[in-house]
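Review form for a predicted model. The reviewer records the input and the model, then writes brief findings.
Reviewer: anonymous (R2)
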Amino acid sequence: MLVVFASLAAPGHAYPLVPLAVAARRAGHDVHFAVGEEVHAALRGAGLAVLRPGDCFYEMYADDLQPELERLRADLVVHEWGLPGAALAATRAGIPSLWHGFGRMYPDGIGLELPAAVAERPHLDICPPSLQEPGFLDAAERIPLRPVAFSPPGERVRVDGPFVYVTLGTAFGTAEVLREAVAGVAALGMRVVVAAGSVPPARLGPLPRGVEVHGWVAQAEVLPRATFVVHHGGSGTTLGALAAGVPQLVLPQGADHFGNAAAVVAAGAGLSAGPGAGADAIEDLAWRLLPGRGEDFRAAARAIAAEIARMPAPDDVVREVF
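Model under review:
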């Protein structure tokens, strides 16, 4: 079977599809990944064949993709929630397709068209049911798929003792917010490992003792070893921390962050700070997640990790669905 995966050209949209694409290739399918060039190197590093249809860079429209689907004679299209143009292209080309989620179903008004705006089709849902939006759980045809963290080849961080992992992701981070987060966590006296992402490390200025800043880390390796995680509330980091059974303090910045933060808090797996929280407020919240104080948060996170572990793995979904 020839399968085309398609996503926006951003890590938070492309990377959640990679484990299933790799599993499909491993099962012997001919796999192509249609996406803008920003993430081509990372996908090639995972062994995937990539293409940039038409003039697409970040987004992709039906007119970009439809000729490529017809040229390749695709048998199936797997398109992420943020790319309704790919769903429309598959419909026009008469090719079966599946939605692929990147976390909780996001609310209207965050700059992405809701998947329901295109013809109904099944959703590969990587969010554990206990955190998924109830209306989506009731209304959609869902195929559960275990979220598997993907980190492209990059900087590996050696960690020899307890530490807190801090990141604001690749799209919404600012030096001002990251400085406050680092200062608040560092005040606890723990080692702090920071993935600066889109923030140039030099913009953080002098750092407290015990803080190390990296432009990029292999998050899939760092998360399971962290004492807790302080982050922006992006779906990838939220699900990654939950899959690792690690409590989290969420500092939502935009997009779907606020919904993710509310779901984490409601599940008892972490805490959230309001917009504009300073170092003192972050320190007060982070203190509650320390070992010996945050055991209820840790137990809730581990319960969700067990729920995620019971979800079908990518290899299982490929065998059952493709």
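Findings: The chain has 13 helices and 13 strands.
Further findings: The two ends are 8 Å apart (CA to CA).
Recommendation: see findings above.
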